[in-house]
Please model this.
Amino acid sequence: MTPEELKDIQVDKTVDARGTACPGPLLEAKKAMGTIDSGQIMEVLSSDEGTKNDLPKWCNKKGHDFMGIVEEPGYFKVFMKKG
Amino acid sequence: MDIEKKIKELESQIAELKESRQDKLSIVVFSEDLDKLLAAMIIATGATAYDMEVDLFFTFWGLSALRDAKKKVKGKKFMSKMFGLMLPKGSKKVKLSKMNMAGMGTAMLKSLMKKKNVASLDEMFKTAGELGVRINVCEMSMGLMGIEREEIIDYPHLNYVGVGSYLSDAQESKIQLFI
Model:
């Protein structure tokens, strides 16, 4: 999905991982994923640049759908749908 | 050899492979350097996000990180006492492997870590405990270095083991590291 499409998307869960560095965002994403149902959408807020590569790979491994990234001032949002 | 027999043989070999390599991570933690310990703990906690079972095997210098600064052991023999004095007492006392500069480098790194929101080694042990990371402590090297069970940190999943435990777990692990 393009960032424009993602901006208006309705998310079921928001995880703010901006206060943590590696491996924080990954661990918080994993924890929060356990609280939502299959097909639900989650966004992870992070300012840790490595997360941009890590979370898509993690989604791929764990069978979740990586939807895209939206840049915000000073951080970014990673969107994913639970598999 | 006929094809059917060959397929059967391959099938059993595949089954064996599946059995032997599971989603497990085994790390031998040999070093007492802050930087190396951080790497080990980041990989260990990160692996739990992949639903991997994680076993850490602490041996030799790595044992320093497991010493509890608040615990004291009385009645140690002379050599053990000397070792105890020279080894860092716990995860807050371990130093960088490079650029320590009499502690200045380590202090600088620690303040940088705080600034960049990197968890301290202490916090990482706590997180690892919550995530079910197992810590296995080498009994033999404890004996050599005069470290007693009474001075080891309180950790929820801690066992005292020998090389057999490590090998059994490592054989079943997709990832094996020595740090």
